[in-house]
Amino acid sequence: MALPSHISLFEVGPRDGLQNEKQVSTADKILLVENLAAAGVKRIEAASFVSPKWVPQMADSGEVLKGISRVAGVRYSALTPNLKGLELALDANASEVAVFAAASEGFSQKNINCSIEESIERFIPLIEKAKEHNLPVRGYVSCVLGCPYDGEIAVSEVARVSEILYKLGCYEISLGDTIGVGTPVKARKMVEAVAAKVPADKLALHFHDTYGQALANILACLESGIRTLDTSVAGLGGCPYAKGASGNLASEDLVYMLHGMGIDTGIDLGKLIEAGNRISAALGRQNGSKVARALS
Ligand code: HMG
Ligand code: MG
User: Fold this and answer.
1) Ligand 1 centre distance from Cα of residue 81 (Å)
2) What SUPFAM superfamilies is this protein classified in (predicted)?
C-alpha cells in the first residue's frame, strides 16, 4: 500500500495531556482549544466526563466545552466511561464522545474499576443513547503493545476488543500504546492483526512516547492504510493509571515529519507551536516537542 496523501490529526492534548499535568485554569484550557482550532486542527478532545475523584484535573470539563468559541467544521470530543458521563457530555454539547476499553484485564481494573467484559456491557446502552442523539462514538483500546500490570498483550486480544467496539457502533477505533513500549515491527504486526477485523481506515494510532518510539512506530504503520493519528500538543501529559507513562507523541513533531514527507495535515505548524508554547508557559514546563523547541 502507498503512503497516504493526507492524515487527519486527532488532538488529545487538552484531555490526555492535561489530565496528567498540574491543574491549569479553565480559561487556559479554553484558550488552548481555541488556539488549536486556529492552527487548523479539526478534531480536538477537549473534555473528559469521568469521576472527579479519579481525575480531578478534568473536573471542569463541562465549563471548558461550554466556554469554547466554536469554529464551524471543528469537532470537540469528550471521554465518557458510562451513562453519567454521556449525560454530562450531552449537556455540554460535545460534538462526539469516546468510550475507552483495554486489551488487558489489569489495566481495565486499574483505569475504570471493572473487567473488559463489564466495560463493554456498560458501553452498550451508552452507544445506543448516543445514537439516539446522533452523537458519533469513538472507541479506545488501551495497552495494545504492552500493559504496566499484565506485561505482553496478545495481538489477538487487541483485535478482539477492537472488533467488539467497532461492531457496537464506534465509528473509529483508536489503538493506544498507553505506556509507549512498542517498537516498529511489533506495532506494524499489531495493526495488521487488527486491520484483519476492522477496516484500516477506521483505525487510529494513539502512541504515547515514553520510550521515544512513537514516530518510528507510526512510520512503520503508515503504509497499512491508517488515516488518523492521535497526538498531544507540546507532548503534554501521560496517564494517571500507567505510572511513568509520558505524553502522547507531540503534535508538532508529527506534523513536521508528515509535511516533510509531502503528507498534508491542513495544520499551520507555526500556529500549532504557538499553542503549545502558550500552554507550556501556563504549566511552567518546557515544551515537550523537539520540533517546537528547535523552531521557537
Ligand atoms: P467507580 O468508583 O467504579 O464507579 O468508578 P461508581 O459508579 O461507583 O461511581 C463512583 C463515584 O463516581 C460516584 O460518586 C459517581 O457519581 C461518580 P460518589 O457517589 O462517590 O460521590 N461518577 C462520576 N462522576 C462524574 N462523571 C462520571 C461519573 N461516573 C461515576 N462519568 C469510573 C468508575 C469509570 C467512573 C472511574 O473509574 C473513572 O472515572 N475512571 C476514569 C479513569 C480515567 O479517566 N483514566 C484516564 C482516561 S483513559 C486514558 O487516558 C487512556 C487513553 O488515553 C488511551 C490510551 O492511552 O491507552 C484513552
Ligand atoms: Mg492516552
Assistant:
1) 6
2) Aldolase (SSF51569)
In this prediction the pTM is 0.97
Instruction: List Cα–Cα distances, 64 to 29, 58, 79, in angstroms.
Output: 7, 9, 13
Q: Which of 246, 236, 176 is nearest to 211 (CA)?
A: 246
What would the pLDDT profile of 226-249 be if each residue is shown by its tens digit? Answer: 999 999 999 999 655 656 667 999
Name the closest-CA residue to atom 9, ligand 1.
51
Q: Report the pLDDT value the prediction gives residue 246, as an integer from 0 to 100.
A: 76
**Residue 53 banded pLDDT, cuts 50, 70, 90:** very high
**Cα(233) to centroid of ligand 2, in Å?**
13
Task: For the chain, give the number of residues.
Answer: 296
- Rg of the chain over all Cα atoms, to the nearest angstrom: 17
241 C-beta closer than 6 A to ligand 1 = yes
pLDDT at 240: 57
- What are the distances in angstroms from CA 294 to CA 38, 190, 258, 291? 22, 33, 17, 5
Distance of CA 169 to the CA centre of its chain: 18
Closest Cα to atom 32 of ligand 1: 112
CB 83 within 8 A of CB 114: no
Please name the residues in contact with 101: beta carbons below 8 A apart, sequence gap of 6 or more.
108, 116, 119, 120, 123, 139, 140, 141, 142, 161, 165
pLDDT confidence of residue 1: 77
| Average pLDDT along the chain | 96
CA dist., res. 162 & res. 180, Å (int): 19
**Phi-psi group of 23: left, alpha or beta (phi > 0 → left; psi -120 to 50 → alpha; rest → beta):** beta
Give the residue-averaged pLDDT of 191-216: 97
From 143, 170, 221, 239, active-site residue: 239
